[in-house]
Amino acid sequence: MDAVATAPRTIRRDEYRPPAHTVRRATLTFDLRDEATTVAARLRIARNESGQGVLHLHAATDLEILSLRVDGVETAYERDEETIRVPADKDELLVETVTRLRPAQNTALEGLYRSSGVFCTQCEPEGFRKITPYIDRPDVMAPFTVRIEADRASCPVLLSNGNPIESGDLEDGRHFAVWDDPFPKSAYLFALVAGDLGWVEDHFTTMHGREVTLRIHADRRDLGKLDHAMESLKKSMKWDEDVYGRAYEHDVFNIVAVADFNMGAMENTGLNIFNTKYVLADKEISTDLDYQGVEGVIAHEYFHNWSGNRVTCRDWFQLSLKEGFTVYRDQCFSADQSGAAVQRISDVETLRRAQFPEDAGPTAHPIRPDSYIEINNFYTPTVYEKGAEVVRMLQALLGPEKFRKGTDLYFTRNDGNAVTCDDFVDALQDASGIDLTDFRRWYGQAGTPRLTARTSWDEAARQFEIELTQSTAPTPGQPNKEPLVIPVRTALFGTDGKLLALDAQGTLETVLTLDQPSARFVFENLPSRPIPSLLRGYSAPVRLELDLDAASLAFLAGHDNDPFNRWDAAQQLALRALQAHLTGRADDRALPALLVALRLTLSDPNVDRGLAAAMLELPDEATLALDVDQVAPDALAAAVDHLHETVSRELGDVLLDVYKSCDTNEPIAFDAASIGRRALRVASLQMLMVLPDEHRTALAETQARDAPTMTERMGALRALVDADAPAAAPVLDAFYTRHHGDALTIDKWFALQATARRPEALTRVRELLDHPDFTLGNPNRLRSLVGAYAASNFVGFHRADGEGYRLLADIVLDLDSRNPQVASRLLGPLKQWRRFAEPWREHMRAQLTRIAAKPDLSRDVYETVSKSLA
Ligand code: PHE
Ligand code: ZN
């Protein structure tokens, strides 16, 4: 395990040094067996100029090294923590090691482990050192040849990166396969899979005429659920050719779905390994969100082939180089598949819900962090989602043509290399001729900037002025913040509700670039005072404070032709209404304005139904908490209840009409319009069920039992559970009986109950921890019960008696030595303790302190608790 006796060391970005040695070629032989596996490695190592007389290899603390030979001679070495030091006073050496692994006992799911009997690996970021001693850093890249030997009956399928070059039978019912990956790669992209798997096969012909064999492997029982993943893969390959000019260069592309996986998926070269959650889909069990999740993650991992694998990161501080860029790419791909408006809204919602709290909390860090204790803790919403927003801003500043020229230059210039975030910006700057010096501050500065807009109108001069001011609050280690370059996409609406021309050429939309603490922008010759629509499409990851009155926001929420801003205007009105309730202000104008805008949007069938559904999803307590100083969960919940009840009561008639109009009885389709209709059917039903009566409850029960899609059934069941309707329990039982044995669907059954919107959810969570289907060993199950409870059940988790926190801490303490990476992530909600009022604050702190006191805490959890308490 990653246990530590003393405080673990902090790794700093400015300590980066090029590697003293590099690996010229890696040849590995895996002898896979049930009890113990041996790995024989032959590493051709070369000394770089900076190299001394000692070779440093990484080896996990508990790695059992049976032998180590240098140029054929068994050699003594020193070992401490994660490094071994081998005397090596030559420019070239052959290092041969033999290690013994126990994959069946590997519960951390890093390195080589078993998932439902299948041998599989996870090496990013530092898992390869749990397999064999190596120079385990991304800037050491080598061609790999891998021989796998295993029992033929239990492991008919043997896979690694690159191309299969040899296979055959061995004695004792065993067989072997040899894989060769001639392109030098970092060790974190190594992968191996061996097991009894089925697969589906298809082909893709690249724009260069290369015929690529595509295979997706899974448990044989799941072979009927792979079509959507295969379609998504082919679409992704085509999209990357069309939009970025990037083609696939190997002959085979393999994907394997495994049930036990710490994250979503992994982009190992030519052999992606996926959490089953992001591969399997079928009409019976998958919601529209599940389908979109599969499509998006398949695309994400495929896109890494260029943004990550062929051009990789020099060191782990550069993680956003591949992740931010690849998330941006998959977001654009998804927008092209099923509707840009709803895609943008959901991407921004994710940013606000997950990244904003992080950026305002004790582990706030820039998208390119300056230091870490455990790199596994830095696969964060900041590195991923904020990183994607930074790339999106670069795209906006350069425009599509120059951005494409820039990415072309980035890929060709750096192909086959391990590079930095600066290299990425350099390529965009060199190709476009646009100076990006100041823009680079986004990479180094943490915290969400606050952007204030003050507007004024000069009637006599017919001038409209927008004054933009930015400021960023201090974050840990960064007391002083510099101004950032903030692109603010802007349009103005006239009193007739039409867009105003901003200049003589009739431009309707412009980008105001704020690169100072504050600046004024003046629009001339306007007919009357306009209503501004600022930050359209959410053009920068900031928190905008607008001096618009409720009537102007209601106008935007009912009419803005920028769908994101239309949605966001409704969110702003809802937040004002929630604030008014919290502070007891009776003269609130926001709530009536919101009702008007929602009524208009719902009842206009020409408005994208998906957008209407998104507008019905009002801000929750977690979002509201960002705007509140001393978070008192019960007060926030009361405000949200009041808002929901008002909407449910005042819009009951239109909600019911809309609900009925979305039941079209057409054959099930997965185009944007059908998905939007189902989303609105669910959202309207859920809003109706805030004030349940017999009729509404009957609708929900029928839908939960009989609706043709999982989206509708789950949505209705959610409404029954939240309303604590008598039908909830029998329908949940029926759901369980129907789907018993299907892990991903039983995950949904756990999550539905864990997120029941009431404090008593705790009791049910406790019961479910003892359910025979619950296990700490499967991350998906753990996330669906404990993760969902702590992160997505604000009312159920933040109990005034602190028992929700205690339950989470119990689980984290139990999990810490088994799977530190997942344990540390589960802790997330407790990081926010300083933002809460008493007694919640003290209860949260007490549990963090309790965890901190555990001896031999993993590096992962140590870093999270110590930073939270600092
Ligand atoms: N690199 C993976 C992705 O984003 C995420 C991952 C990180 C998976 C660490 C496993 C372990 O696509
Ligand atoms: Zn990724």
From TrEMBL:
Q: Which GO terms describe its biological process?
A: proteolysis
Give TM regions. Answer: none
The reply to whether Protease figures as a keyword in the UniProt entry is yes
Name all Peptidase M1 membrane alanine aminopeptidase domain ranges: 229-442
Obligatory cofactor(s): Zn(2+)
Q: Which EC class is the enzyme in?
A: hydrolase
Alphabetical UniProt keywords: Aminopeptidase, Hydrolase, Metal-binding, Metalloprotease, Protease, Zinc
Give every Peptidase M1 alanyl aminopeptidase C-terminal domain span. Answer: 551-870
Cross-referenced Gene3D superfamilies, in alphabetical order?
2.60.40.1840, 3.30.2010.30, Neutral Protease Domain 2, Peptidase M1, alanyl aminopeptidase, C-terminal domain, tricorn interacting facor f3 domain
Out of the domains of life, which is the source? Bacteria
Q: Which residues form the Aminopeptidase N-like N-terminal domain?
A: 81-189
Q: What is its EC number?
A: 3.4.11.2
Q: Which Pfam families match?
A: DUF3458, DUF3458_C, Peptidase_M1, Peptidase_M1_N
The Peptidase M1 alanyl aminopeptidase Ig-like fold domain sits at 447-546
Q: Per the record, what are the reactions this protein catalyses? A: Release of an N-terminal amino acid, Xaa-|-Yaa- from a peptide, amide or arylamide. Xaa is preferably Ala, but may be most amino acids including Pro (slow action). When a terminal hydrophobic residue is followed by a prolyl residue, the two may be released as an intact Xaa-Pro dipeptide
GO molecular function, a single term: alanyl aminopeptidase activity
Q: Which NCBIfam families match?
A: pepN_proteo (TIGR02414)
* Record-linked PANTHER family: PUROMYCIN-SENSITIVE AMINOPEPTIDASE
What family, per the record? Belongs to the peptidase M1 family.
Q: What is this protein called?
A: Aminopeptidase N
Q: Which organism is it from?
A: Roseiterribacter gracilis
In the UniProt record, the gene name given for this protein reads pepN
